[in-house]
Specification:
With 223 residues, the protein is of the alpha/beta class. The protein has helices at residues 169-177, 182-195, 204-216, and strands spanning 5-9, 14-21, 29-37, 42-49, 54-63, 68-77, 82-90, 96-105, 110-119, 126-136, 142-151, 156-165. The chain is built from three helices and twelve strands.
């Protein structure tokens, strides 16, 4: 395991971080980041996990009063790769978090999202959300979601959702009916699916760059 990298966001400040794991040559990668966000601050983190054969991105975030954490992450894998995103968010009063994770798996790969939200007793008025979705391009691939909510306050909003399945065949049929070739339709659907994870990036050029870098890691996928 690699050591934790620690980062502090000053009160009222906004910062953004990026992580891209693409090394398939080594035995595995574990990237670990611990962030403390001061009162009224905001931290955004966007990541692509396309490493192998085992790669894991860990985030441990503590939010002071009124702070916000935004996560957008994608796991991509083929062959026997196992790619994971693991998060733990500890909320202060009036804080908020939104986590969007997407997985695209093929071959016999596995994509995992493990998200833990902790809301202590004195952290009222918290708004926390997790959303995970996975597309399995081949029958041997799999994905798993394990949301954990530890809530001791009574005036909070906390939600999580997960969906795992194949490409939307109805959407592919709709596009084919309008003259779009099947291969092109698949690529467009996957592109739109991955783009959800980066929708919160305010800079259009950065958003497009992250999307293109993610798509570039899908060589060998059955598209």
């Amino acid at each position: 395991l690699t050591a934790w990298h620690d980062h502090t966001v000053a009160p009222g400040e906004t910062e953004r971080g990026f992580a891209i794991i693409t090394d398939r040559a080594g035995g595995g990668t574990v990237d670990r980041l611990r962030v403390h966000v001061g009162a009224g601050g905001r931290y955004e983190h966007f990541l692509i996990n396309a490493g192998g054969p085992y790669s894991r991105c860990e985030l441990d975030v503590t939010l002071e009063e009124g702070a916000h954490f935004e996560l957008g992450g994608v796991t991509l894998g083929g062959g026997e790769a196992r790619t994971e995103i693991v998060s733990r968010v500890v909320h202060g009063p009036h804080s908020s978090s939104r986590q969007v994770a997407r997985a695209v798996q093929w071959g016999r790969s596995v994509g995992n999202f493990l998200g833990r939200i902790e809301i202590p007793r004195d952290s009222q008025k918290v708004d926390a959300e997790q959303n995970f979705r996975a597309i399995l391009l081949e029958a041997g691939a799999s994905a798993n979601a394990r949301p954990e909510l530890e809530i001791f306050a009574d005036d909070v909003k906390a939600a999580h959702g997960a969906a795992i399945g194949a490409l939307d065949q109805q959407a592919a049929f709709y596009m084919a009916a309008r003259g779009i070739a099947p291969d092109t339709a698949k690529k467009l659907l996957v592109r739109a699916f991955i783009a959800d994870a980066f929708a919160a990036i305010g800079d259009p050029e950065l958003r497009e760059d992250m999307l293109e870098q993610a798509l570039a890691q899908m060589e060998g996928a059955s598209l």
